[in-house]
Amino acid sequence: MVNEKIKAAEENLIHVYNRFPIALERGEGVYLYDTNGKKYLDFAAGFAVSGLGYGNQKLNAALKFQIDQLYHTSNLYYHMNCGEAAQKLNQISGMDRVFFTNSGSEANEGALKAARRYAYNKKSGRYQFIAMENSFHGRSFGAVSVTGHTAYREPFEPMLPGVSFAEFNNLDSVKALVTDQTCAIILEPLQGEGGINLATQEFMEGIRRICDENDILMICDEVQCGMGRTGAMFAWQKFGVKPDILTMAKGIGNGIPVGAFAMTEKVAQASLKPGDHGATYGGNPLACMAVKTVIDIFEEEKIVEHVNEVSEYLTDRLEELVQHVDGVLERKGTGLMQGIVLKKPAAQVNNRAIEEGLLVIQAQGNVLRLVPPLIIEKEHVDEMIPKLTKALTE
Ligand SMILES: *Cc1c(COP(=O)(O)O)cnc(C)c1O
C-alpha cells in the first residue's frame, strides 16, 4: 500500500492517471521492488519501454558518462552522439533519414507534418489522413486526431480536419476512404492499446499497393511494436512491407525519453526543409547516448533472436491457459507483445495480479497485455503463468 506522504504529494498533480496502489522504487533485471520491498515480476516494462529491463550495467555506465560530460547543447550545434544514433537507428530500421523527438506522440506529429510537407512540395493539395479504428497514436492534437478511439478525441473536438477511420484489416474499408486529397495512411502493424491486433500480411501489402497506386504516403507507427518486440527489429520487416515514414519511441531509449520519425530518401528529398520543424530537446546528447547504446546492446546480446526463442515458449504456455483456464477466451499478438482476451473484467484480474506480485497492462477489448522486458527467460514465463492463473481464477 502507498503511504500517506506519497498520497499527499500526489495531490499536487493534475489527476489524469488512475494509479494502482503501489509505489515503485527500484528495479533489477526483470523485477521491480516497491517502497515496502515487495518484489514484482515485470510483464509490463513501463508500457513496453524497458526492453533491456532494469540496471543494465553497460547502458547505465554510458548514461552516467554522458551526464558528467554534457547532456544538453540544443540543435544549433553538432554533437557526435546525434549523428551516431541516427546512423545506427537507420541501419536497424531500414530507413534513410531520421529526426529525434522526445516522445511517441511527437514522433507522430512530425510524421503527419512531414506527409503534409511532401504534398505541399508537390503542390498536390493533398491533406487528408486515413487512420484505423482502435488505433492509438498519442495525446497531442495531431496524434489524437488520428487515434481511432472516440473517448480520447471527443472532449477535445474539433480535431484536425480531413481524418477518416477505416476498419483495421479490412482493405475495402480503406479503399472506400481514398480520395484525390488523401495525403497519407497511418497504421500500427500491431495495434497495442487497441487490444493487441496484428495486421494481416494481405492488409499490409494492400495498404502498400493503395499508397503506390495513388501517390499516398504509408506511415507505420512502431512506437510500441518496434525495437525487437515482435521478433523483428521493426514489425514492417516481418511483413516485408516498407513504409515511407516510420515512427518510433518506447523501446529505443529503454526509458530515457526519446522518440523518432524516419523516412526514405525519396520522401526526405521532397519533404521537411531547414526551418520547417524542430525540438529544443530533440536528439540531445543524453537521449542519443541512450539510443546508440541500446542498439549496441541489442546487437551484442542478440536480443531479437532471443525474443524469437522465448516468445515461442510464452505463446505455447498462453495457449495452454486458453485451453485450461475457464474465462480465457483467446490469445492474441506475436513475439513479446501478446494479450489474452478475458471474460472477467481485465481491471479486476490486473489488480489481483499485482497482489500476486505480477505487473501486466490492460488494453481495449477486455484484453490483458503482456509486454515484458525482452530479456526475460523461460524461467520467468514459468514464474508468470501460476501468478496469472491465480489472478484469473481466485
Ligand atoms: C505509446 C504510444 C504512442 C504515444 O507515445 P508517447 O510517448 O506516450 O507520446 C504512440 N503510438 C503508439 C502505437 C503507442 O503505443
From TrEMBL:
Task: Tell me which GO cellular component terms the UniProt record holds.
Answer: cytoplasm
The organism is Mediterraneibacter gnavus (strain CC55_001C)
Q: Which reaction does it catalyse?
A: N(2)-acetyl-L-ornithine + 2-oxoglutarate = N-acetyl-L-glutamate 5-semialdehyde + L-glutamate
Molecular function terms from GO = identical protein binding; N2-acetyl-L-ornithine:2-oxoglutarate 5-aminotransferase activity; pyridoxal phosphate binding
Modified-residue entries (N6-(pyridoxal phosphate)lysine), positions: 250
Q: For binding N(2)-acetyl-L-ornithine, which residues are annotated in this chain's numbering?
A: 139
Q: What is this protein called?
A: Acetylornithine aminotransferase
Q: What is its main location?
A: cytoplasm
Single GO biological process annotation from the record: L-arginine biosynthetic process
The record's remark on the cofactor is:
Binds 1 pyridoxal phosphate per subunit.
- Origin organism lineage: Bacteria, Bacillati, Bacillota, Clostridia, Lachnospirales
Q: What is the required cofactor set for this protein?
A: pyridoxal 5'-phosphate
**What extra comment accompanies this record?**
May also have succinyldiaminopimelate aminotransferase activity, thus carrying out the corresponding step in lysine biosynthesis.
Family as reported in the entry's similarity comment: Belongs to the class-III pyridoxal-phosphate-dependent aminotransferase family. ArgD subfamily.
